[in-house]
């Protein structure tokens, strides 16, 4: 009976927390603001972000490790299930968290599905990515059956930074102006051609013309 009462009480707190989280956010957060949410592995209520502005870019960082069922099963960071050191494991990743119960859910998706990228396993359990074009609120919760939450421990820390609109690329530099045309050469000045005086030409002397003979007398009228 005590266990049933605790479960019902936890579910009521989760519903109340969800209602509060869904109503406490008004307009979208302003550029340069940051939100921090804590996803408790033992609480059924998802954490709800402020509304996203689809014209802004956001950087989301998810960190932390959750122990499932009192460390009787692999631990989970936001993306991977891990061989738990308390059970003699070496802390190496065993599987992706989406392949089984556990891990972080973002709007019902795995973190990598929501981000649209694949993440390699990180031993520091910190995963960061940027998104844009998202609208409305975003919910974050631990993926586990409500009846199995009571013996989980740990939490995820979610930090959302509003980076504002994407930077407008600078315009390409204008092409340099072509060089001015080369100046034309000055017009040539016309000069008269002076022929040299001939030196081998002798002056032409006129030949004497003999006088005409006199006319005969009968020809005189």
Report on this structure.
The protein is an alpha+beta fold and 221 residues long. Helices cover 13% and strands 25% of the residues. The protein has 2 helices and 12 strands; from the N terminus they run H-E-E-E-E-E-E-E-E-E-H-E-E-E. The chain has helices at residues 2-24, 111-115; strands at 34-40, 47-48, 57-63, 66-67, 75-76, 80-82, 93-96, 104-106, 109-110, 126-132, 139-142, 153-164. The strands form 3 sheets. Strands 1, 3, 4, 10 and 12 form a 5-stranded antiparallel beta sheet that branches. A 4-stranded antiparallel beta sheet has the order 2-11-8-9. A hairpin with a 3-residue loop joins strand 5 and strand 6. The termini are far apart. The model is unreliable at 1-26 (pLDDT under 50).
Précis, in short:
This protein has 221 residues and is α+β, with helices and mostly antiparallel strands.
Q: What order do the helices and strands follow?
A: HEEEEEEEEEHEEE
Helix fraction? 10-25%
| Tally of strands | 12
Approximate shape = rod-shaped
Helix/strand/pairing category: alpha+beta
Gap from first CA to last CA: 186 Å
Q: What is the radius of gyration computed over CA atoms, rounded to a whole number of angstroms? A: 51 Å
- What are the segments in which pLDDT stays under 50 over at least 5 consecutive residues? 1-26
Quote the average pLDDT: 75
User: How large is the share of residues in beta strands?
Assistant: 15-25%
Number of helices: 2
Q: Biggest sheet, open or closed, and with what strands and sense? A: 5 strands, antiparallel
